[in-house]
Amino acid sequence: MSLDIGATGDFPERQIRVIDVGRGQVGIVRWDADLYAVGNSCPHQGGPLCRGVLSGRIEAAEPGSLSLDSSTPLLACPWHGWEFDLRTGQAILDTKTRVRTFPVWEDDGRVLLEIGKAQPPTRSGSRQVTMGYDDANACFLMKGGA
Amino acid sequence: MYSGPVIDCDVHHARRSDEELLPYLSRGWREYVSDRGPAGMIPLTVQDGLPNPHGFMRAETYPEGGGEPGSDYGTLRRQLLDRADVRRVILTFGDDSHVSGHHNPYFATELARALNDWTVDRWLSQDRRIASSILVASQLPEQAAAEIRRHAANPRMVQVMLVDNPFNYGFGHPVFHPIYQAAEETGRPIAIHGGAGGWANPPSTGGGSVNLYFEAHTLWPQVAMTHLVSFISHGVFDKFPKLRLLLIEAGSAWLPSLLWRFDAEYKGLRREVPWLRRLPSEYVAEHVWLTTQPLEQSPKREQIVELLSWMNGAERLVYSSDYPHWDADEINHVAARLPQSWHRKIFFETAMQFYGWSEVDLPAAMTAAA
Fold this sequence. Notes:
The structure holds 2 protein chains of 2 kinds. Chain A is mainly beta. Chain A has strands at about 1-5, 15-20, 25-30, 35-40, 55-60, 65-75, 85, 90, 95-100, 100, 105, 110-115, 130-135, 140. In chain B, strand 3 (about 130-135), helix 4 (about 140-150) and strand 4 form a beta-alpha-beta unit. The longest helix of chain B has 20 residues, at about 105-125. Chain B has 14 helices and 8 strands. Chains A and B meet through strand 5 of A and helix 9 of B.
């Protein structure tokens, strides 16, 4: 199911806009003209991911020589700082953990979000926050926590 | 019980007297330390350590002919080398190990040089089972590096030892890197000994200096934690990918929980250390080893075994006695606390691999004369 979530101009470059979808929320980000959509719940401990810092990827060849890979959009959770690659939803330092992503695209000046084809989140580790997905309401339900 | 071959990675040797070291100082420094008239000699060791109410030495280790414990080869041979199938011991100096606690960096550098030469001359010549650390004065890292390179051709000067901390920075700080460059070049591990950071130079612990030896000794592992975290955070193992680190006399059971925390912190704080290439625990798995002493005294044996299993203890730990110090661990004490299947590795094989030896290099006692 695709939803019309606004006009192209409603999603400015390098900003996060959080959309209420049923009982859940999806963050929409435009980065270098491309659109990305991720669930607003960090798979680490369920933090409000889309209130975190959006940036390129800071790299360093050696201590002190920081550089910025601005082609890689990262979103850092405000709770514990875990960084996620918006292109894949992948936690960049935990290959087993991924935030849910959704197809999002533009058509004739409108931005459309596909909520029925989400890539589900994954979470590694034993202290797992159990996440569920309610297809009918296109939202995330936190069913429990550690 | 364990009766197999042993490599002891922490044996403290000492001088019988100050005069024993004087011939190894340059003429100028010899004059500097000795010509004070009635004031006597300038102290060759750092004086302001915390006193142990029992003394620092096992009572029976004082040589019958006088001198400090660890200063007499015959006593050490009888009490340590010949008491078990000891194939090699690594000398780690006694009070002299605190050379980096001297305020005068030039004097410290000269002392380190003299102490290494004295060790080669007076100890390595006595017994093929004896190897030694290279003592460096880290106050002057470039000169410390030169001292390491000076011993490059001597395969029995097997590691570079750091104890006191002259700069109040963790040992991963770039100021120390010339030492690590020389260590890597010459194939020597870095060995950080308990008390690092320090004994004479404050602070002895993070959070503030302690006042009692009881506190300091309890918190010995904290110092090792500081330096281990510093090594990895400052990218030492990326800059020097062949470098290996041995933490001596810091205990070991704390390592699993530190690494759990360290990895978790990295996942949240990567932006501050984007030069790191792997999880901290992965650097440790490739670059870091620990000695057994003092083995933590868990209420039940299985508790320490489980903790050490989390860090692959049989491959990560090497036996150390700490002879002749008061808190030394006996071979059979360690053997009784750890699984039999670990014994040969911890007492012998892991250290042999760490120092790049083979069994052919490690003769049994009957053939060990120098």
